[in-house]
Design brief:
The chain is of the alpha/beta class and about 325 residues long. The chain is built from 11 helices and 14 strands. Helix 3 packs parallel to helix 4 and helix 6 crosses helix 11. The radius of gyration is 20 Å and the shape is elongated.
């Protein structure tokens, strides 16, 4: 039976375009549309969709308010349609923290035929959302872990995909200021990774930035791979960015980053694979273990999509499997 989708957008033109894109796939059907948040909340009980695609900017009730009310009254997987502007990216990260499963960036503006270019991504994310758990990460009530020394030798490599931004945020905001270098690959397009890094920088007690080619790898700093570029490390302790072929269908991909970290830092490397679809990161954790480093996979109960961690666990590449609330504590202990 096809997955039932409700399309919510204040533009009749965009509702038509998104509907056409979805219904090109025989496994999906649009059971209805809504022109704003109020209309969407009225139609959900009637239409009983499996998934909702939700625009951000709408009259009467905006996308974030609509999302909150859906999660409160009738929790459903929601995919946001987001502008690639900095403001659009910020709203997207807020939506992910409120319970949205994923987002699809609008390439240029709110009403644009360019959105046709994201059809494959939209269809793929709808299908992924149907398998996702609706996970809302509560803020930690325990104090942040304190470390007894400044850490200069270890390095932490983190990879994540669907459901990753709130999970990464949860881990980082529960680490102390004196962290070792941390490298992050979050499957995310250009235009969003910089906003993601800036958001983390505001929330964390240490520096977070989008990586640039040649950046030094420093304690007390987190570097986020920019969208569209693989990120690896060099023997001179610097970042290398490249536009080589996608791995696991992704660029940036987790595996090349973790492989380079394993080869250079060996037993000082720590690898973490968080929520996400696919298998990216499994080979990376394997390489880190091979060189004597340690590895963590997020557990199924706290993953939005238990894909990447599941593969790493099943293939024997995870030293420990932990809920998201315990990962920061374990990283601090290992360091």
């Amino acid at each position: 039976m096809p997955l039932r989708v409700l399309v919510v957008d204040d533009s009749a033109f965009m509702r038509k375009i998104v509907t056409q894109m979805i219904e090109m796939d025989p496994e999906l059907t649009v059971v209805g549309t809504a022109f704003d948040g109020v209309n969407a909340l009225q139609r959900i009980p009637e239409l009983k969709p499996d998934i909702v695609t939700l625009d951000v900017n709408m009259p009467r009730m905006d996308g974030l308010t609509t999302l909150q009310k859906i999660m409160e009254t009738n929790p459903l997987p929601v995919i946001m349609l987001s502008a690639t502007t900095q403001e659009g990216a910020e709203i997207t990260f807020t939506a992910l923290n409120l319970g949205a499963v994923d987002y699809v960036p609008k390439p240029s503006g709110q009403i644009s035929l360019d959105i046709e270019r994201v059809r494959a991504e939209l269809v793929s994310k709808i299908k992924t959302a149907a398998q996702a758990k609706l996970v809302t990460l509560a803020a930690e009530t325990q104090p942040k872990i304190s470390l007894t020394q400044n850490l200069t030798d270890p390095i932490i490599a983190i990879g994540a995909s669907t459901g990753g931004p709130p999970a990464v945020e949860h881990v980082l905001t529960n680490l102390p200021k004196n962290i070792p270098p941390i490298l992050i690959v979050q499957h995310m397009p250009a235009g969003f990774t910089n906003s993601f890094a800036k958001r983390l920088d505001r929330l964390c007690s240490f520096d977070v930035k989008e990586a640039e080619d040649g950046d030094p790898i420093l304690s007390g700093q987190v570097l986020v791979a920019p969208g569209g570029y693989h990120m690896t490390v060099t023997r001179r302790g610097r970042i290398k960015l490249d536009v080589g072929p996608p791995e696991n269908g992704m660029r940036p991909a987790v595996d090349p980053m973790m492989r380079s970290v394993a080869e250079i830092y060996q037993s000082q490397a720590i690898g973490v694979v968080l929520t996400g679809m696919g298998r990216d990161g499994a080979y990376g954790l394997e390489a880190i273990k091979k060189y004597g480093g340690r590895t963590i996979a997020q557990d199924e109960a706290t993953c939005t999509v238990f894909g990447m961690p599941r593969v790493a666990i099943e293939e024997g590449h995870a030293d420990v499997v932990l809920p998201i609330s315990k990962i920061a504590e374990r990283l601090a202990r290992w360091c």
